[in-house]
């Protein structure tokens, strides 16, 4: 991930240095002044075009071969064949042509002051997308690395309390996993649409192809409703934090939990609370990685609902078998995850939250009692 992000950043920087300067020079040339020039050389071969013109500006003689500063002018402008014919006719008839001269530096000139705003905007969007993607890749690796290093420190500091090895489990409540879905989806949508819009704008109208246009339309039609749905669900329910007692859960005993929902119309008959133990395994092979998820145990709990001001308090409990393995390190390619799913089928938008919670063997509780006498376990 880090190597890919750095490589992409280098590519984006190289493109910026090599292409943006051409676009900038082409844009500046729109304000250059006109002058007459004579074509002194016009030779066309199969692989090369030799061309030169001479002009006088403010009493000084200049010679140049520049036709346009616009990046890849011959391919993108759609005007090259026409300009080439005009230059040939001018050379054969010895008639002057009009060129555009930089008044501040008269040695700079060109034949065609072509500039495409859509292609320039497309280039900017495409480069912005590349920079954004590379930075996100580097930040993702950095976040993963720092989190891994932090866990190594916590493992040394709390050798007998593995539920303290993960930052999200150290506080008194657990945030739902889908709390970042909307943010990730928005960033992903912006990235995809920026890259594709920039690419198509840069290529120009001649290179618009229906599959690319159709792909962008489909992405928009799919992502926009999902983004709206997540936003409306967030406004309706918020991101309800989960409180566990004890924290963490232990196998071989009864464990309680409470969830506060920003909606007073949730009823117990509408609710489903399910705890699942899953074995998550990421297998790497040449060129690809596959994820295998195997369910080891799952159970639904009965839920009681009470009201407190504008909140619905959902209370539930689980008896967890003693033989189940401990929750694992979610940064590993092979770990055990405990997923608590809460779903309420209510009028309008349903309530759906997922939490990854800590569950450990009862022997950890006995070890904890040896090293410190807790008063918060029941």
In words, what does this structure look like?
This protein has eight helices and 15 strands. By secondary structure, it is α+β, with helices and mostly antiparallel strands. The strands form four sheets. It has a five-stranded antiparallel beta sheet with strand order 3-2-1-4-5. A hairpin with a 2-residue loop joins strand 2 and strand 3. The radius of gyration is 33 Å and the shape is elongated. The two termini are 44 Å apart. The C terminus is likely disordered.
In short:
The protein has 378 residues and is α+β, with helices and mostly antiparallel strands. The protein has eight helices and 15 strands.
User: Number of DSSP strands?
Assistant: 15
- Kindly state the percentage of residues in helix: 25-40%
Q: What is the N-to-C order of secondary-structure elements (H for helix, E for strand)?
A: HEEEHHEEHHHHEEEEEEEEEEH
The end-to-end distance, rounded to whole angstroms, is 44 Å
Helix and strand content put the structural class at: alpha+beta
Query: What is the helix tally?
Result: 8
Tell me what portion of residues adopts beta-strand conformation.
Answer: 25-35%
Roughly how many Å is the radius of gyration?
A: 33 Å
Which ranges are low-confidence, i.e. pLDDT below 50, for 5 or more consecutive residues? 371-378
Mean pLDDT: 82
Could you describe the largest sheet, including whether it forms a barrel? 5 strands, antiparallel
Shape: elongated
Strand order of the largest sheet: 3-2-1-4-5
